[in-house]
Amino acid sequence: MTAPPVEVGWLDAREMITRSELARSCGLSEAEVTELVDYGALRALSAAAAEPVFSAECLPALRRAARLARDFDLDLFTMALLLQYLDRIEALERQVRSLRAQVPFHALPGPREGPQPWHEPHG
Amino acid sequence: MKYKDYYAALGVPRDADAETIKKAYRKLAREHHPDVSAAPGAEARFKEIAEAWQTLKDPEKRAAYDELGRRPAGEDFAPPPQWAREFGGGSFEDLDLADLLATFGRGQRRGAHRARMPQHGRDYESTVRISLEDAHRGAKLNLQLGDEEGGARTLEVTIPPGVSEGQKLRLRGRGGKGRDGGADGDIYLHITLAPHPVFRADGHDLHLDLALAPWEAALGAEVEVPTLDGPVVLTVPPGTRAGRKLRLRGRGLANGRGGRGDLYAVVHIDVPGALTERERELFRQLAAASRFDPRAVAGRGAGS
Asked: The CATH number of the domain where B246 resides is what?
C-alpha cells in the first residue's frame, strides 16, 4: 500500500493564500478577515483583485490569534491587537536568534546547549 | 447520552447571571489554557470549561440545557422527545451533549438535520526539531498524531531541503477526516533546529567561531575550516582582528529556492594557556620591540 505523497506548503512569503482559504483555515468568516484588514492587522498583497490574496506567512499567527480569541471570548478588535503583538513578538524573536548566532560561543552566558567554550569567562 | 454539569464546571450557581458566568469562565480559562498552563491535564480541564462556556453563554443553548433539569454528572439520560422532532428526526445515539446543544445556537432546530452541516476535519499542530544537516538536505520523519478517539497514527513526512529555524509548513488535507462533505483537516508543522556543535544558524546564514593564534591573525594564514560540504581552506588576511567576520559565500544552508546562505567565520584570537620558555622569550622580545597599543584607538575587542 502506498500512501499518496504529502503536499508540503511553505507558510512564508513564497506562497500566497486567498481570503476565503485564509478564513477557512483560521475558522473565521471572510467578513471578519476583511475587518482585520480594515483594522490594519492584516495586509492584502493585491487588494484590487476580485478576491484579495495574502502572503501565506500571515497564516500561523492569524490561526493562533483566532484560537486565542475563541478560547478567551475576545472580540474582533481585540484579536486584531493580539495579532499585531504576536507579529511583533515573532519579529523580535527572529532578531534575538539572529543576534545570538553572531555571539561567539565562549561569550554566551550561562549553561547552554552546544559545544563547550574554550575560554572560561574572566572574573 | 451522558449528562454533564456545566454549572459545576464553571463553579457558578445555576441561577448565575450572564456576567457572572463570563467572569468565571475567563478566570478559569486564564488559569487552564494550554498556552498558559504547563500542568498535566490542563488541556482536558480547559476543554471541559470551554464546553460549559459554549453552552452557558448562549441564552438559547442555556435554556435548552436547563430543560434537562438537574442530574448527577455522568448519568445516562435521554433528551426530551420533542428535541428529536425539532432536531430533524435524527438519532441521538452517537451524539455528545455538546454537539447536540451546539445545534441550538445555530438556529437549525427546525427540521435541519445535522447531517447537512459539513464539518471541517481536525487540524493538527506539531513542533518538530531537526538537525541542521536535515534542514539543509531535507529529511523524512515520522509524525505521531493522536486522534480524538485516543488512537494514534503515524504519518511519514518529507521535510523539503531549505527550511530554517521557525519555518512553518502546512500539509494540506492530512489532518482529521472531514465529515458530511467538509474538507479534511491540515497539519501545521513548526520547525526548530537542534543546536549544532560547530555552526550557529541565522536564517540561512551560518556562523562559526574561528580561533586564530596571534601570529596567524597578524601575519595572515591559510586555515582549514569545516563547512556542511566538508573542510575548505580559508585565507586569513594579514592584520585580521578579533571579531572580524570572514565570509564564505554560498556555504550556508540551502534556502529551498535553489540558492544558499553564506557561512561567516567569526575570528577570535587565542593564546597558549601555558608558554614554553622559548615562547615566553619570543613574546618578551615582541613586547619590547612593538609599539602597538590595543587600547589606544578602538578599545578592546572592537574593530574588524
From this structure: 2.60.260.20
Whether B22 contacts B15, CB under 8 Å? no
Q: Which residue among B116, B135, B161 closes a domain? A: B116
Asked which of B116, B146, B173 is the last residue of a domain, the reply is B116
Domain that residue B44 falls in:
6-116
Residues B210, B285 within the same domain = yes
The pLDDT of residue A22 = 95
At B72, which CATH number? Answer: 1.10.287.110
Residues of A with CB under 8 A from a CB of B: 3, 5-12, 14, 24-25, 56, 59-60, 63, 68, 71-73, 90, 93-94, 97-98, 100-102, 104-106, 112-115, 118-119
Is residue B107 one of the residues assigned to a domain?
yes
Overall pTM > 0.95: no
Strand partners, B159: B139
Domain span including residue A76: 16-103
Question: Same domain, yes or no, for B17 and B86?
Answer: yes
* Same structural domain, B149 and B226: no
Q: Which residues on chain A are in Cβ contact (under 8 Å) with B158?
A: 5-6, 8
pLDDT digits (tens, 9 = 90+) for B226-237: 999 999 999 999
Rounded distance, CA B86 to CA B64, Å?
A: 12
* Per-residue H/E/C for B129-198: EECHHHHHHCEEEEEEEECCCCCEEEEEEEECCCCCCCCEEEECCCCCCCECCCCCCCEEEEEEECCCCC
Contact between B121 and B77 under an 8 Å Cβ cutoff? The reply is no
Interchain CB distance below 8 Å, A105 and B25: no
Closest residue in A to B160 (Cα–Cα): A8
CA distance A110 to B155: 38
Mean pLDDT over residues A32-52, rounded? 89
Query: How do residues B120-150 score in pLDDT, each as one tens digit?
Result: 888 999 999 999 999 999 999 998 887 766 7
